[in-house]
Specification:
ten-stranded mixed β-sheet; Jelly Rolls; two-stranded antiparallel sheet; alpha+beta; 20% strand
Length: 296
């Protein structure tokens, strides 16, 4: 654990994009401390708490749609990129905050270095999450995002922003920190019918391939960001005694040219060769069309 903390942890402003990209190519994941503006992140988290409370109230009253019950409430998900009315007090859309946290910060240089200058933001898998240690639903088991998204031959980069301290008293993320080139067998027959059963890499399979004594589950705080590629094996990290709640948001990018037509048509494409520019003819309209970049 200690050796991975040293290898896989960077500090914003003290490491080059090339170092981060090289680590992602070798290990499939890393952590950058202090890469997310804490004051803006706090505003985002507090607004998110209000939106989750509203969703919970509607679910209890029976006024939440069946689609939202299945796609959102059950998984602790909200989808700000589908709701322009989700805004901060100053009128900033939550969707814009999420996208700006990557494309208007030095993190865009990591996207460019790993994926190239033409990338697409994947809308269905860009969202917020809520995980509670005491929730009745099972935590997310070992899986690979490529299998979940059915993008086996596409490298997807996920930026995972914690909005609460997690990893000690609240659930976080646990990695088998090695970059893979393929997809492991998944869909454990013993868990079919259970939540996440269709994507699960069984414990037996994971132990047959990896030394699970060498997993990595860093403690995270507001302002940090985890980066993970779509083939790295990971799961929700929980342990006995956890009682806290964790909220986060995650935003995913892939090379536009590598995406199948269906996913390309439902994504938002950007040219990030220079200052990020949305390619207006691609993707749905009305979501976060303006972005600039920053430098290290």
């Amino acid at each position: 654990m200690v050796k991975f903390d040293t290898k896989l942890t960077f500090s914003a402003g003290q490491s080059s994009p090339g170092e981060v990209v090289a680590t992602l190519r070798t290990h499939g994941c890393c952590l950058i401390r202090g890469a997310h503006d804490r004051s803006r992140a706090t505003l985002f988290r507090d607004r998110l708490a209000e939106l989750y409370a509203e969703m919970d109230r509607r679910a209890a009253e029976g006024t939440l749609s069946e689609d939202d019950l299945k796609r959102c409430h059950r998984y602790g998900i909200l989808r700000p990129l589908e709701h322009d009315e989700y805004t901060l007090a100053d009128g900033t859309r939550l969707a814009d905050h999420m996208i700006d946290a990557v494309l208007r910060t030095p993190l865009v240089d990591v996207v460019r270095g790993l994926l190239g200058p033409r990338v697409s933001l994947l809308l269905p898998t860009t969202h917020t999450r809520r995980q509670q240690a005491t929730q009745s639903e099972r935590p997310v088991p070992f899986h690979q995002d490529s299998a979940v998204m059915r993008l086996h031959d596409v490298t997807v980069l996920n930026f995972w922003f914690p909005l609460d301290p997690c990893g000690r008293d609240a659930p976080s993320v646990e990695f088998v920190p090695w970059s893979l080139t393929g997809i492991l067998p998944h869909g454990d027959p013993s868990t079919q019918g259970k939540l996440y059963g269709n994507l699960e890499i069984s414990e037996e399979m994971a132990r047959a391939v990896f030394n699970l004594e060498n997993t990595w589950h860093p403690e995270l705080d507001l302002g940090d960001v985890l980066l993970l590629t779509s083939r790295v094996v990971h799961r929700t990290y929980t342990r006995p005694g956890m009682r806290g709640q964790r909220r986060n948001f995650e935003i995913r990018f892939a090379p536009t040219a590598d995406l199948p037509r269906e996913q390309r048509d439902s994504a938002i494409a950007y040219d990030i060769a220079g200052a990020p520019t949305r390619i207006q003819e691609s993707g749905p309209s009305g979501v976060a069309a303006r972005h600039a970049t920053a430098s290290y």
